């Protein structure tokens, strides 16, 4: 089981804080946006005498309301297409376990969300990476690159859209290209769409795999409340598919873990009543943060960064050889006026060895002034580190 490149540096952050240093956390996608009051109040006001199990698929009332939410956003998702999971993480495990056996292969464009490595390891599945590059803005690799990797063991292609850690938003054309190859080889297309609402430019639109005509039997969507409602600690997500056999199998996994957490479902169901103004303000804030971060990073000599179209991450290529060593050094040995930064070394977001060694993932989940200060610290740290 691989280490998390995001969390493995926590002991070093604790060292920095024990020295009295302030740490700017650019390493993890934990939004500082307030959770909607309607969700928090639903938990506070819940009149529960016995904290019972729920249905293994989750509250029917929640699934019904969630189906209506999706349909209002143009996604043709019915109640029977949804199983509530303990976070998007469990939904991904259910998806892999329901479609793949030990030794099967899944193709994933990299860099990708680091825990895909862990989920595949836990499922006995082999990740076959196809590399996207910072020079191309992390766009979808050529379909020919996918074709070369498909074997008798290939069962699925997994994408994150918009992407973590790149922030890249796949175009409708790219999604349809994937649909074509999936249909040709009778594979599953698993799409992690937890950042669907986080699109920043008016010219860009999210195209969901659930909208692909004629591919209903091959598509699985992963979703979560973590980022949408700033409810990472709720651990509520869902697996969505119109393939009855997949959902029947996923239900066996759901039954094996009994049920998703009750209070978190109460909060998540209530969160669906969050007004659109909440999202409008959140998107405006993140767009400003993105623009601030990219502008500041581009001022540092030798740094290359691809401007993200969605989510709240970017990959930055730094003028050094080993970002892992640099990230530890930032916390263990460096400080600037009793302040330092914590980044996520990007090599952990690749499964190909020795790729991304000079890259870091930065999450722009801090206020704009803190992002400006963080990049200033990063600039100074690079100067000091490269003179060692």
Describe this structure in words.
With 388 residues, the chain is α/β, with parallel strands linked by helices. The protein is 38% helix and 15% strand. It contains twelve helices and 13 strands. The protein has helices at residues 10-18, 37-44, 60-72, 87-99, 115-123, 143-149, 172-185, 244-256, 262-271, 276-297, 323-332, 368-385; strands at residues 22-25, 82-85, 105-110, 126-131, 154-160, 188-192, 219-224, 237-240, 304-305, 313-317, 339-342, 344-345, 359-363. Strands 2-8-7-6-5-3-4 form a seven-stranded mixed β-sheet, with helices on both faces. Strands 9-10-13-12 form a four-stranded antiparallel β-sheet. The chain is globular. The protein starts with 9 loop residues before the first helix and ends with a helix.
Notable characteristics:
38% helix, alpha/beta, 7-stranded mixed β-sheet, 13 strands, single chain, 4-stranded antiparallel β-sheet, 388 residues
Could you give a quick summary of the protein structure above?
With 388 residues, this protein is an alpha/beta fold.
Order of SSEs: HEHHEHEHEHEHEEEHHHEEHEEEH
Major pleated sheet: 7 strands, mixed
Outline type? globular
Percent strand equals 15-25%
Question: What integer is the average pLDDT?
Answer: 96
**Count of helical stretches:** 12
Distance between the termini: 34 Å
Q: Residue share in helices?
A: 25-40%
Are there runs of 5+ residues with pLDDT below 50, and where? none
- From the helix content, strand content and strand pairing, which structural class follows? alpha/beta
Quaternary organisation of the protein chains: single chain
Report the radius of gyration as a whole number of Å.
Answer: 21 Å
How many runs of DSSP E, i.e. beta strands?
Answer: 13
**Main sheet strand line-up:** 2-8-7-6-5-3-4
């Amino acid at each position: 089981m691989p280490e998390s490149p995001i969390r493995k540096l926590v002991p070093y952050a604790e060292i920095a804080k024990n020295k009295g240093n302030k740490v700017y956390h650019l390493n993890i996608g934990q939004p500082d946006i307030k959770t909607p009051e309607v969700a928090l109040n639903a938990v506070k006001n819940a009149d529960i005498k016995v904290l019972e199990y729920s249905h293994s698929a989750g509250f029917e009332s929640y699934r019904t309301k969630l189906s209506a939410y999706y349909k209002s956003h143009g996604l043709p998702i019915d109640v029977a297409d949804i199983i509530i999971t303990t976070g998007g993480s469990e939904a991904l495990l259910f998806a892999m376990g329901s479609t793949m056996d030990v030794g099967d292969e899944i193709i994933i464009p990299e860099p990708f969300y680091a825990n895909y490595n862990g989920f595949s390891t836990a499922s006995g599945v082999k990740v076959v990476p196809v590399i996207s590059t910072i020079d191309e803005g992390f766009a979808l690799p050529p379909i020919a690159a996918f074709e070369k990797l498909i074997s008798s063991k290939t069962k699925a292609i997994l994408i994150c859209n918009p992407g973590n850690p790149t922030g890249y938003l796949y175009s409708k054309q790219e999604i349809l290209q994937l649909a074509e190859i999936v249909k040709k080889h009778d594979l599953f297309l698993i799409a992690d769409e937890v950042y669907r609402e986080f699109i920043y430019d008016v010219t860009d639109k999210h195209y969901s795999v659930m909208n692909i005509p004629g591919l209903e039997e091959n598509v699985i969507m992963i979703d979560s409340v973590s980022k949408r409602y700033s409810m990472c600690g709720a651990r509520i997500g869902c697996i969505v598919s119109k393939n009855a056999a997949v959902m029947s199998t996923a239900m066996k996994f759901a039954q094996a873990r009994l049920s998703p957490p009750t209070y978190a479902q109460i909060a998540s169901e209530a969160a669906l009543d969050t007004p659109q103004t909440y999202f409008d303000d959140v998107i405006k804030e993140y767009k400003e943060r993105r623009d601030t971060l990219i502008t500041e990073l581009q001022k540092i000599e030798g740094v290359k960064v691809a401007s993200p179209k969605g989510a709240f991450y970017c990959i930055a290529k730094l003028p050094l050889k080993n970002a892992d060593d640099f990230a530890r050094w930032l916390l263990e040995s460096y400080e600037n006026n009793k302040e330092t930064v914590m980044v996520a070394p990007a090599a952990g977001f690749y499964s190909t060895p020795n790729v991304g060694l000079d890259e870091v993932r930065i999450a722009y989940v801090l206020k704009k002034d803190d992002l400006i200060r963080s990049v200033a610290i990063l600039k100074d740290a690079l100067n000091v580190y490269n003179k060692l």
